[in-house]
Each structure stands twice: as structure tokens, then as C-alpha cells.
Amino acid sequence: MTDVMSTAVPPGRLGDPAMSLGTDPRADPRMMAVFSQLGLDALAEADPVDLSVGIDQLRAMITEIEVGFEGLFTVLAENAPRPDGVTSEVRTIDGPDGNQIALHIHRPTGVDGPLPCIYQVHGGGMVMLSTEGPIYRNWRDELAAGGAVVVGVQYRNGAGALGSHPFPAGINDCAAGLRWVSDHRDELGVTNIVVTGDSGGANLACALAIKAKREGWLEIISGVYAMSPFVYGDWANVPADLRSLVENDGYWLNRQLFPLITKVYDPDGANADDATAWPSKATDADLQGLPPHIITVNECDPLRDEGLDYHRKLSRAGVQSLGRVNAGLCHVGEILFRAAMPDVYAAAVRDVTGFARALA
């Protein structure tokens, strides 16, 4: 009998280097209808990046890239319906370096508390984007409408419009905001706190649990929900089993961007082996005793396999971790297509809010 698996063509660009997101049969057609209208169905362009240029030039490149991402996210969010029955406010707290941290607090109206808290960390590779962007504003509204108090933290990025603040500025801000939320549970009307983030925000969400364990305040985190985590960081030594970096390269994201982000986040590489910068570097000792995690990754994402690898590290260290692959989606696709894929979006909302309630 013929071994079907042995004769199967490898998926994506492993089987056909010319394949794009627009021609990959795995890609969800509703997602592709949107991307095709925006001209994003072809392979993402790979502009040469010389990491030997000055850090100021690299930061300027990130700022240009940020403009493009913010523009795309604004377009994707503009036709998305927003839920009723949600209020929001902004609290400003003192940061660890004399800076100010804005906390965007969303809550459902007419719901008796206390409620679980979802502490949301935005994506952008730790170097760009904003908590105030429409994709993330809408996401917090939807999570709040699902029955939670949601707090989005505006941390300092490694570059971009909000200034240049390399590691550990961002994670220190996230930690300060998280501890403020914990200290004000009664005022906020919350029971437990689940930390969630996407992409670079998922890096920070995972890293916060490791940091909290190191510093002795892990008890305030009841769980971590990480979507499409960007956690590897060592692009000079990529293991062969992270095949999605080749399989899905250029599918909206180009892997050539990742070393640039890494350089801007940690300019001299002094923190390359620090698990709070790159959670993939965590040892069993770093991970043992962490709270439950959910790690979700997307089939057509270059980052898929590093997220699965981190889930396996957690499991081997004895952490309760659920790993899941969302079929047909690009990087963080579950939160990008509220209007075109409402069922996918609603499922993500239910999963995050349900996880938070289950751990209350």
C-alpha cells in the first residue's frame, strides 16, 4: 500500500516556493477576499535590511513600517460593528522610570460584579503600534461585552511614534500596570487577572509570568492567553523544526522583518538569552510553577511553529498548557477580520473570556 504521507507535497512554500497567501489552498477564502481587495494576497516584499547600519536608521525603518500597519488596521477596523453596553476610561499611573503609563479600562454596563479581569497587551513586536489603535480598542470592547473588566496597557515601545525605549522598558511598564490592577482589585471590581496579548504582546504576556515568578509576585496572575506569540528571537540559529518560517514566509509577514525588530528591541544583544525578553529561552526552572496557559497559533503564519514550540516547553515543564492551531488564518487573523469573519472573531472572544471566568 502506498504511504500517502510520504508522497504528499509539503504545505505552503515548502512544496512550492512561488506560493503566496493568495494561492495557498489552506487560506480562508473570506480572509483572502479582504486581503485581495487590499493587494495583500501576493508575497510580502522583502526589502534588504543591513543590520550594521546605525540604530537610529533601524528605528526610522520601524517607524515607517508602523505607519503601514496602523493604516492597514484602521481599514480593517472601520467596518467592524462595535458592541453596545460597554464603557471605557483611561487611568494614568506612574511608570518605573518616571514615565507615565496609560491604562485603558473597559467594562460592561448593567452587569453585577465582581468580574474577571483581562489584562491586554497589544502586538507590534514590542517595538511599534499602540493600545489606542482601532483594532485593539474594538478587541477590548468585545472582550468587555463578553463579561470582563478589560485593561489595555500602553507600554513604551522599542521604536515608533511613541519613542525609542528598548528592553526592558516595555515589560517593566506592563509589570507596573499589572501590579497596579492587582492592587486596585476592589476598586475595579475584579476577581482574578488573566494576561493576554497577540504577537509581540503575546511575547510580553508570556514574559510577564516568568518575570513575576522571578520577582515573587506570580500569585496575581491566574492565567496567560497568548495568540501567535513572537518569542524566539535568535535568527542566527533557527532550528529546522520551525519550518513555518519557510512554509509561510511572505504570507502578509516577511521573516526578514524579525531580525530588524530584534535588533531594535535589544540593540546590543545583551538580553538574547533572557527569558523575559525571549520566552523561548526559558529553562524548565523558569517555567515550573507558572499558571495555566493557552497558546494559539495560526496555520498560515510564519510564527506558527515557535508558538507551538513554546507550548511544548511549558508542557514539558509541568505547566498546564493548551496549544491550538487555527486553520486557514494568517498571523493574528482571529482579531483582524471582525466584519468579514464574525464567527472566527466571536469564537476568539468566547475563548479568552471563558478562560478568564474558568480561572476565577
Summarize the structure.
With 360 residues, this protein is α/β, with parallel strands linked by helices. The chain is built from 13 helices and eight strands.
Write the layout of secondary structure elements.
Elements: H1 4-7, H2 12-15, H3 29-37, H4 55-78, E1 86-94, E2 100-108, E3 115-121, H5 134-145, E4 149-154, H6 169-183, H7 185-188, E5 190-198, H8 200-215, E6 223-227, H9 244-247, H10 257-265, H11 284-287, E7 293-298, H12 304-316, E8 321-326, H13 342-358
Parallel strand pairs: 3-4, 3-5, 5-6, 6-7, 7-8
Antiparallel strand pairs: 1-2, 2-4
Helix pairs in contact: 4-10, 5-13, 6-8
GO molecular function, one term: hydrolase activity
Domain Alpha/beta hydrolase fold-3: 120-332
Pfam family, one: Abhydrolase_3
Task: Write up what this structure looks like.
It contains 13 helices and 8 strands. With 360 residues, it is of the alpha/beta class. The chain has one domain: Alpha/Beta hydrolase fold, catalytic domain (Rossmann fold). It has an 8-stranded mixed sheet, with helices on both faces. Helix 4 crosses helix 10 and helix 5 packs across helix 13.
